[in-house]
Write a structure and sequence with these properties.
The protein is of the alpha/beta class and 245 residues long. The protein has one domain: HUPs (Rossmann fold), CATH 3.40.50.620. Helices cover 43% and strands 9% of the residues. The protein is built from 7 helices and 6 strands, in the order αβαβαβααβββαα. Strands 3-2-1-4-6-5 form a 6-stranded mixed β-sheet. Helix 2 packs across helix 6 and helix 4 packs antiparallel against helix 5. The longest helix is centred in the N-terminal third of the chain and has 26 residues. The protein starts with a helix and ends with a helix. The C terminus is likely disordered. Its main location: cytoplasm. One of its GO terms (molecular function) is phosphoadenylyl-sulfate reductase (thioredoxin) activity.
Length: 245
Amino acid sequence: MDSLTREDLLASKVEMVSSLLISIEGNYIPTCFACSFGVEDIVLADLICKHAPRIEIFTLDTGRLPQETYDVMQKIKDRYDREIILYFPEPQAVEAYAREYGPNGFYKSTMLRKECCYIRKVEPLRRALSGKKAWISGVRREQSITRKELSLSEWDKEYGLQKFNPLIDWSEDDVWSYIRQFGLPYNALHDKGYASIGCAPCTRAITVGEDIRAGRWWWEDAITKECGLHTKNYSQGRLKAKSAV
């Protein structure tokens, strides 16, 4: 009975997300989905392809992603026969950073790490969102303390468009139940203890009892563990960061 109840609850959540995506497609075109190919994004990619195919899917290729991320990226592209638009960091900015601070300068301080994230993620995201009316992300409230205040839908002042977080109230069990129910491909690193996956040098496996995002930038305090994609007023923080390094 408990199992059936969980299935019913998940089915209800899936219906709500599907209806939201259809509404977004009908009212916010052009709109796009920022897909990093974590399990949450795999769920959203599946629902978008099934119910709202006019929503653009893009990803930010930082140049330092694990091979396993490229593997699942290819599987999703082949499964749905969908174009996945890739955005890369500006080569000159990457070169300048590496010359000044070294290829792994981001380990030296939070400020330098945020600058690296800005170059490899935030600036490409600005280009990806240019001209769009809305964007969609796979963030969930329970992922970290930095995401507990996020809403299902909110005006994103940083980028000047509406932002939707369709899975905001989903649990980790909800996400994995959907993945298994539909036999969806996922990043092989999840089977090796990686709960949240970003760039290879900034991601590690977690141990039992650790926070879901404990493996991201593990050398930093929990309150700083954002790359800037889902943080308000990040550009202001970035200016402070640049003046501090």
